[in-house]
Amino acid sequence: xxxxxxxxxxxxxxxxxxxxxxxxxxxxxxxxxxxxxxxxxxxxxxxxxxxxxxxxxxxxxxxxxxxxxxxxxxxxxxxxxxxxxxxxxxxxx
Length: 93
Description:
Distance between the termini: 33 Å
Strand content: 35-45%
Domain Nitrile hydratase beta subunit: 6-91
Largest sheet: 6 strands, antiparallel
Oligomer: single chain
Protein name: Nitrile hydratase beta subunit domain-containing protein
Mean pLDDT: 86
CATH architecture: Roll
Organism: Actinobacteria bacterium BACL15 MAG-120619-bin91
Radius of gyration: 14 Å
Pfam family, one: NHase_beta_C
């Protein structure tokens, strides 16, 4: 099992905002464009996993976030959106 290098800055239940750009240059482009600038709630934390078979440096901690779809697509959207976002894209809201 891979080693967990960093637990991350946020905990389950924290309200965070997805930045428009990462705090540091990143090689990980996985942040969904529709989430940029929006506020979500941390549902799960994964920490930063060291996996030398996949990448020579650990990725920053990863979180599963829950967004109200109405914040992203307007008041007629009544569902929720779940996305995974790395630490360098997040600020405490």
